[in-house]
């Protein structure tokens, strides 16, 4: 099932928490915005918890 972007045009993965993609920025090659949104997702508490769970499985 395709994901719908939020009000800011950001798609947030349901499989990998913290994987956030700024669709409008991707389409206009605004890489500064693309990377800023991606970094914000990777810094989110949801992503930190996801990584913690992955490391606990080792």
Record keyword descriptors for this entry.
mainly alpha, 58 residues, single chain, 2 strands, 3 helices, two-stranded antiparallel sheet
Q: Any overview of this molecule?
A:
It is a single chain. By secondary structure, the protein is mainly alpha-helical. It has one domain (10-56). 50% of the residues lie in helices and 10% in strands. The protein contains 3 helices and 2 strands, in the order ββααα. The chain has a two-stranded antiparallel ribbon with strand order 1-2. The termini are far apart.
Q: In order across it, which strands form the biggest sheet?
A: 1-2
Could you give the distance between the termini? Answer: 30 Å
Care to count the β-strands?
Answer: 2
State Rg.
Answer: 13 Å
Report low-confidence residues grouped into runs of 5 or more: none
Molecular shape: elongated
- How do the helices and strands follow one another from N- to C-terminus? EEHHH
Mean pLDDT: 94
Q: Could you say how many structural domains there are in total?
A: 1
- The portion of residues assigned to helices is 40-55%
Structural class by secondary-structure content: mainly alpha
Summary, kept brief:
The protein is mainly α and 58 residues long. The chain has 3 helices and 2 strands; from the N terminus they run ββααα. It is elongated, with a radius of gyration of 13 Å.
Would you spell out the secondary-structure blueprint of this structure?
Blueprint: E1 10-12, E2 20-22, H1 23-27, H2 31-42, H3 45-56
Antiparallel strand pairs: 1-2
């Amino acid at each position: 099932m395709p994901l719908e972007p939020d009000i800011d045009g950001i798609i947030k993965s349901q499989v990998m928490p913290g994987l956030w993609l700024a669709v409008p920025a991707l389409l206009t090659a605004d890489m500064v915005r693309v990377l800023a949104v991606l970094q914000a997702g990777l810094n989110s508490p949801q992503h930190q918890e996801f990584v913690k769970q992955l490391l606990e499985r080792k």
